[in-house]
Write a structure and sequence with these properties.
Two copies of one chain form a homodimer. By secondary structure, chain A is an alpha/beta fold. Helices cover 44% and strands 16% of the residues of chain A. In chain A, helix 1 packs antiparallel against helix 4 and helix 7 packs parallel to helix 8. Chain A is elongated and about 60 Å long.
């Protein structure tokens, strides 16, 4: 099936709606108004309606959306993310922590291998994820057709490692290194900078 | 000093610029063009120039910005974030990992205490951060004038805990629980949903 071309931010919000719908289904809720769903997702109702228009769902005034149908329409538009293999590069404190984070697997992502310049086996103990030396990374990516990577190396090494990832065939990087990566246009990067999240919050404290 | 009223997203981007300038200073770079700084921060030059206008810095055509002066102007506008005390609630896998993440302290945030319904001391071993039972949280916030909290409890408990935080005086929450929090208007929340970050990336993989 041909994918619908969606704006980047709409993709992100559709993932959030999907998450909310999932929770509604778990609670056996069958229909939801655009106002309620927008509130749960933290967006304006007009934004929600626009985004749902992308996936061909327009709701019925007074009736709201059928939770099941809407969830299926979003899944069809986003494509299945089930069992997408991911590698993690940089098994320091944060990387080691991310390997223990159960949220990824819950959402259908499996971290199938991790890499570090100095592979210390203790750091992956109990995670079930194998740890390999960094020099094996490119071959591994190619031979396992890995398309996604989580990057948690120090900022000074992030660009070099990103170049290797891209060269080997990675198309999407979740970047935890506090630096902005320079990648080709067809590679997608989401940045998560935890310190900046806190810093930008602290401004609003009276 | 009266704080300038800045839009939320501008605050976030100013923090990113500050981070880039910091790196330039470490490398003894004295001036930077708006194009180079914009690229390093991952924004468009027009956006950068607009944001720097908020802090009264307009650069000089052909000369660029003085790194030192610009960094000081941003610090003055954002206010010092040094030694802002933070608590962490929910010491599961992710919470325990966040306590070991050195990036917060590096940026001037000190996690002074952690809380969990079932305080298992092993989870904070080696972090130097004390762990208290959840029922002591509200008193602690009030007596230590804590204004910021990192929330890493399960989604089902996040709203209840957020209500307690707000009631006790917390004004800013960095939320790692995969749920949207309903808080009063004067409370600021930044959401970090790691699974959604991955999920929204996976759409772009061919």
């Amino acid at each position: 099936m041909q994918k619908i071309e969606l704006p980047r931010k709409a993709v992100y919000r559709l993932s959030v709606y999907q998450r909310c719908l999932q929770r509604l289904r778990e609670n056996d809720v069958e229909t939801v108004s655009s106002e309620a769903l927008a509130k749960a997702a933290g967006v304006k109702p007009t934004q929600l309606r626009k985004d749902l228009g992308y996936v061909g769902q327009f709701g019925t005034r007074g009736l709201g959306y059928n939770v099941e149908t809407l969830a299926e329409a979003i899944t069809a538009a986003l494509g299945s993310t089930r069992l997408q293999p991911v590698i993690l590069v940089g098994v320091g404190n944060l990387g080691s922590a991310l390997l223990r984070y159960s949220g990824f697997r819950k959402e259908g992502f499996e971290v199938i291998a991790s890499f570090d310049r100095y592979p210390i086996k203790d750091r992956v103990k109990g995670t079930g994820v194998p740890l390999h030396p960094a020099e094996e990374m490119e071959d591994y990516i190619a031979s396992h057709a890995v398309k996604m990577a989580i990057l948690a190396v120090p900022a000074t090494e992030a660009q070099t490692v990103a170049n290797q990832l891209v060269r080997a065939g990675v198309q999407a990087i979740l970047n935890f290194s506090p630096t902005v990566l320079d990648v080709p246009e067809n590679v997608y990067v989401n940045n998560v900078d935890l310190a900046i999240e806190l810093e930008s919050l602290s401004y609003f404290i009276r």
